[in-house]
């Protein structure tokens, strides 16, 4: 990894320092900096990479107000004062950052949460942010994040933190804001802030808000990448519905086909339950690895454009069970996701009126050829026995 990642020229996706597109698929490991010894850190990172995750969202000081010691008994700040960081704590952070760098994984590191309000204030926010950014100015695998409430009263503090971050590292690392609690998006008060590199959305249990919130942020100008950064966690019990692998797939496809990037989480990991190791290989995580491979197989995947007009009939953008579609900006392919059984009509003109079509099972990536299609529109029904379905068409000459 030669340098910190950047934003594409069109403001839609992420690129390497050399300009190569990067597919964002994140997992949340909020406690990795504080609650795990290095041997566990290595396991978590290895499993993340194995399952296709290339971004790790984590709280630099762990979940909470920033006062809790790490596994070695070291607190982040001396006397709970952000102006006096504790070297011993950050030596462990150093090791985590270096381990992720070796594996070419990017850490989205949270430096502030609204629960730190009694400690991180206007008088010390810039000092704290400048110090942490300066310490990791040379780390190519970091993005800075902040977690306020989505309320205007936090704007001044966030600006102080952002100034400090950019003073500390010269502005080389991207900065985002991940509002908490949900449902919320950073765009509400901050979209036009020059330091905000991309918008982050949290929907938590509100699966029905993923599409409208992503679509709203996708349509803003200037264009900035949109990350659906936190939804319902796999195996979570607090949402009023079972967060099964199907719901993990639905949330992710809703995000990508609305034009966003997506982040996954597992209940047992962030809550540090005894089963956290097993959660690293949860079915939902495996299914998102399948999703990534499917989308990466599309020529110039980064040129995906949401286009619900592809579905002449049978599309659905409201509620929790959606039927969504997107295409290559030049019509090289189209992809549609159906969260349940569906019958629908497709506009073949979106791929030039001639295409090879096939179904893909989102659970395992297995495909069924439909064959060559020509004409203006075609009717379809999803395959029998599938929980959800993908229809892919690739334009032919």
Question: What would you note in describing this structure?
Answer:
The protein is of the alpha/beta class. The chain folds into 2 domains: 291 residues, Glycosidases (TIM Barrel); 92 residues, Immunoglobulin-like, CATH 2.60.40. 26% of the residues lie in helices and 25% in strands. The strands form 4 sheets. An 8-stranded parallel barrel has the order 4-5-6-7-8-10-11-12, surrounded by 5 helices. A 6-stranded antiparallel beta sheet has the order 13-15-16-21-18-19, covered by helices on one side. Strands 1-2-3 form a 3-stranded antiparallel beta sheet, with no helix packed on it. β4, α1 and β5 form a beta-alpha-beta unit. α1 runs parallel beside α2, α3 runs parallel beside α4 and α7 runs parallel beside α10. The longest helix is centred in the first third of the chain and has 16 residues.
